[in-house]
Specification:
two-stranded antiparallel ribbon, mainly alpha, elongated
Amino acid sequence: MSRRKDKEEKPETHEDLQGFDIRIDEFGNVQTTLTQAQINRFLNQNVEDKKFTPEIIKQLQERLKNAGEEE
């Protein structure tokens, strides 16, 4: 395949990200077609946060429960 043809092919994307494009301009600024808030919303809905394992979630729930009982 020629290099030009590679640039024309679009990768498969999630339907919520259709039309998303990201580039870095000549000054090093990131230019996107979605806002940071839109990207974060998509990630929060579709990507599991590996920092919050079931064990961690249980501990946090217990702490919240205990904090509520102290009031």
